[in-house]
Amino acid sequence: MPGLLRGIARTTVVAGTATAVSNRVSRRQAGRWAAQDQQAAYNQPQGAYNQPQGAYAAGSDTSDRLAQLQQLGALKAQGVLTEAEFEQQKARILNS
Question: pTM here?
Answer without folding.
Answer: 0.39
